[in-house]
Design brief:
Length: about 425
Amino acid sequence: MTHRSYLIASLAQTMSEAFSAPARSGSPLLGGALGHMPLFDGGDAGAQIQAELKKIEDGIWKKTEKRLEEVKAGIKVKDYDAELAALEKEHTEVKTQLTEVQTQLGRLDVTGGGKGSERKSAGQLLVESKGFDTAKQGERFVVGTEVKALSSAAGSAGVMVTQPQRLGIYEQPEEPHIRDLFSQGQTSNSSLVFPVRKTLTNAAAMVAELAQKPESDMTFEDKTFPVRKIAHFVKLSDEILADAPAIQSYVDTQLIEGLKDVEDVQLLKGNGVGQNLTGVYTVAPAYNRTTAGDSLIDVYRRAMTQLRLAKHTPTGLVLNPEDWEKVQLVKGTEGHYIWVNVGTATEPRLWGLPVRDTLALAAGEWLMGNFRRGAQIFDRMDARVEMTNTDQDDFVKNRVTMRAEERLALVIYDASAFVKNAPSA
């Protein structure tokens, strides 16, 4: 092979690898920074974004073809390495722009990885914040951070609904919470007003041509769902500031989990009085299909039918840990466990429904319903952690005050989408 032929083949192969079709995952030429990042990533972006990316790709292809023609025609390429370096820089800029677009579309999380990437915890965000170094130096300080995937600033995906992460291989969360079952959104108001259906008369029927159509009727009433705050604080020796991993762990396991424990109670059994939310268990209709001789497993299956008869599809079951234990310990005639494989961790489900066991419900109490459509959580402020040594006499006593709080509302669109069992006294 002549030097010219080798040069043409080398250049063609390099360009092909660097700027290949959308299915390719990146070129070795461009290094780790761009590896695994396709230039033209099709699929879930809008048509307008797709078109703009296609224009960029077509433009680069034209430049590549022009260079190949110059080589074939014997035109000397002044600096082969410089040309490739320029293309690499251009590709880097395109990749950066694409990353920004993907972030705004909610395709990337705050860590810069895909949606399956792990989000930073509250403790990690706190110890990585700018003010934390000032705190360690013993100066007066106030430092805080808000636990959310992205900011709520204009152009950010932080205003989008954040759904629970779905894992390909089931991994038991450290502490599953009731929030995971609900649809979630955000609000900037101190309260939300929604029309709630009171009655429905469905008069739909088969009608002959030109005949009078029957009239259905439904009535609504506007209901206000206030935003409420959950908060607590602790005082610690400032010596712990020298141990960032300890601070991170304390925030995640104590402060944030403390908020979530109270949140569980409010989402289920809040009575709507004072600063309390109105929980779904509080307003849910009672189970009415009691049958003599039914086991707990039978009861839960009949509850599903009660919801279906009310034209709702259940999406979750919440019960007390003792009742969940009774279900899991059911054995067949040969002594084997029916619902669980004790040697493996499996997602807690019953009759196909995700199960959450919680101390927010007493033994014998349970709630089933369509958590996705019957109600929705609106976050006014995601869990926020703040730390200061300016509270009261903290500074002179070498203490820090750490506070965690969140603000949220629970909108119940249709109480009939749930059914509960309240055991008799």
